[in-house]
Amino acid sequence: MAQTDLSAVGLEDLLAREWVTANGIGGYASSSLAGLHTRKYHGLLVGSMLPPHRRMVLLSRVEESFYFAGGQYCLSSNEYPGTIHPRGHEFLRAFNHDPFPRWAYQGDGWTIEKSLRLLHGRNTVVICYTLLGGQDSVDLELRPLFALRGIHELAYQWNGKLTADPRGRRQYRIAATARTPEVFFAHDGEFDSQPYWYLNTIYRRESERGYGGLEDLWSPGVIRSKLNPGQSLHLVCSADPIDFDSAVIYAERQYNSPGSYIATPPVTDPTLASLMRAADAFVVSDQQQSPAIVSTYPWPSPAVRPALSTITGLLLIPGKFEQAKQLIQLTFDQVRNGQAPSDYPEDGSPPLYKAADTSLWLIHAAGEYLRYSGDDKTVVEKWLTPALDILSIYSKGTDLGIVVDAAGLLVSKTPGLGTSWMDAQINQWVVTPRQGKPVELSALWYNALNTVAAWCQLRGDAATAADLLARARTTKTGFNAIFWNESAGCCFDVVDDLGRDPSIRPNQLLALALPFPVLAQELHQPVLDSVRQHLLTPVGVRTLAPSDPAYQGHYGGNVIARDRAYHNGTAYPSLLGWYIRGLMRTLGRTEASIAIVYQLLKPSLDRIIETGQLCELFDGNAPHAPGGAIASARAVGEVLRCYVEELLGIHAKTGNPTPTESPSPRVPQTA
C-alpha cells in the first residue's frame, strides 16, 4: 500500500485526519496524523482492563527529540495554551497505516522512521525509532508521558507519589495508587529518572464538544540512545510485566509471519486488503475468548445492532465463520422476553435491553451466516426454535411496547425512550421521537418472517412455514397500503395513532434492501429517486432531507447541538450500503450500475486507503466535514460488503434458502 505524502499538508489538515489501530481485546492507539492529540481519547496505549471493557489511557504520548550536527530537533507536536510546542509536524513527510502505523520525519542530513505496533491480545505497545538516512549519528531522547485514567476522564497534577521503580535491566514499574493502575515500561536505551508533570496539554476537540479539554501528564524521566544509521531504539509499555526481547520479536512477527492475526485476503487487490484490515480492528475477544464487535473507536464498548447489521462485511466476507457463529449463538443465549440486548456497558455490567430491532437483526445475521457458510445444521438445530420464540413473543407483545397490529405491522411504544437506531437522547428528551410503527421495523419484521419460514422448510416443518408465510403476506399488504406516500413518491417514516410522518429519511431503504424486501417492486425506483434527490451526498446518505424544518446540516458544538444533528441531517457512509443494495437489485448488474456504485464508494475507499479507517459520519452540508467517531464498524463493514458483493460481484457460494408455498426451499418465490 502506497504511503501518504504529507510534505505539503498543513497543520489543520493533519489534525483533521486521525488514525487508530487496535489490539483485538478492545484496546487501541490513536491520534492525529501529526501526532498532536486533539481528544482526551487519543493515546499511544489505551488498554482494555476488563476486555473488551474498562478502557484506560495509560501511555498518552512521548516527547521525542534528538541532537544532530550541533542542533536540537523535535518529532513530537503538542498544543498548550496559546501555542503549538514543539512543532515536530514540520518535519513530517509521510504516513502509512499498512500494516501498522508508521511515520517518516526528514530534515537536512537525517531521516527517522517511527512505528507503532500493538501486541494482539495484550495491553502492550511497542514503539520503534529508526535512523534511516544520513551518514552521522543522532542522540535521541524520549520522555514517555502517562495519563493513567479512564478514557472519559482527565488527569491533573496531584500529590500522590508516582515513581518508576527498576525491575531489572532497563525495565520499570509504575506502582498502582488509589486512583491510577499499575503500568510497566522497558527500553533498550539508557534511563535517567527525572519525574515531573507536564501541565496544561490542550485537547481542542474536547473544548469544541463542550467538555473539559485541559490535562496534566506525568513523566518518569528520559530515555536516551545514540543511533547510528540503520539502528533503532525501542520503547515498550504495558499493563502487564514485560519480557522486552519477546515483546519486540512478537511485534515484528505478528505482522510478517504466515500465522499473522491480521486479516489477509486471498487476493492481490490492495483496496480489498485495506478494507479487510480496517474491518479486523473491530473484531475483539473477551476474557473467555468469545467474539464481540466494537461498534466505534474510541467511544462505545461492544454494541449489538452494529455487530449484527454488518456481520456480512466484518466477519463473513473475511471468512470468520466460527466467530460469526459464536457471536450469533451468544446473542441468542442473551435474549430475554423475545428481546436481544442492545448495548454492553463500558464497566462490564450486564447488558441493556433498549432496542426494538436487535432481535430482528439477530435473525437477519443468522440468515446471512447460512448464506455464506451453508451451515444448515446449526441454523435448524440451534437457532430455529429461539427464532420462532422471538416471532411468537413479538406477535403477542413484550417489553418496550412491542406488538404486531392487525395489519401485520410492528409497533414499539415506550415513553421517554428511543427504541430504533435513531436513539439520540438527552435525559428525558428523545431527540428523534419515532414511537409507533417505524418503517424499518416492519421491514425487518417481514424479512424475519420469511427468513424463519425458510428455516422451517429446511427442517421439513411445512405447516409452520405456511403459517409464517401467510403472516408475511399480511404484513406486506398492510405495509404497502399504509406506508406508501403517493404525493412524495416514497415511504412515510413513522405511522402512529396520530397520523403519518412524511419526513424523508433513509430508514425506508431497508424496505427494498433486505434479503426479503417488503416494498412492492414497482415502488423501488421511486424510493431510490427520492433518496438520491434529497438525501444522497458524496460521502454518505443524509438522515433527513434539507428541506425539513428539523434539518441540521452541521454536526458540532456541545452535546445538545450534536445530538440534535445526529439523526437529523448528518450523512452516514454506512447508509450507502442500504442504498447500493437497493440500487443494484433494481438496476441489475451492468457496466453502468457498477460504475455508479464505484463513484458512490470512492470517497469512502479513498479515506480508508489514506488513514486505515472510516469515520462514523459527515456534515449533511457541503463541504461535508467528518465527525463523530474516528472509526465506525458499520461504515467499514458496509463499504467492504458493497465493494465485494456489488462492485466485484463476488457473492456467497451457497445462496440463501427462499421460502415457498411448496416444500422446496430454494425456489425463488417469496411471500
List keywords for this structure.
about 675 residues, nine-stranded antiparallel β-sheet, eight-stranded antiparallel β-sheet
Radius of gyration: 26 Å
Identify the strand order in the major beta sheet. Answer: 1-9-10-11-12-19-16-15-14
| DSSP strand count | 36
Distance between the first and last residues' Cα: 47 Å
Give the CA-based shape. elongated
Beta-strand share of residues? 25-35%
Low-pLDDT regions: 258-265, 661-671
Short structural description:
The chain is an alpha+beta fold and 671 residues long. It is built from 17 helices and 36 strands. The strands form eleven sheets. The protein has a nine-stranded antiparallel beta sheet with strand order 1-9-10-11-12-19-16-15-14, with helices on one face. Strands 2, 3, 4, 5, 6, 13, 17 and 18 form an eight-stranded antiparallel beta sheet that branches. It has a three-stranded antiparallel beta sheet with strand order 27-30-31.
Characterization of the model:
This protein has 671 residues and is of the alpha+beta class. 31% of the residues lie in helices and 27% in strands. It is built from 17 helices and 36 strands. The strands form 11 sheets. Strands 1-9-10-11-12-19-16-15-14 form a 9-stranded antiparallel β-sheet, covered by helices on one side. The longest helix is centred in the middle third of the chain and has 21 residues.
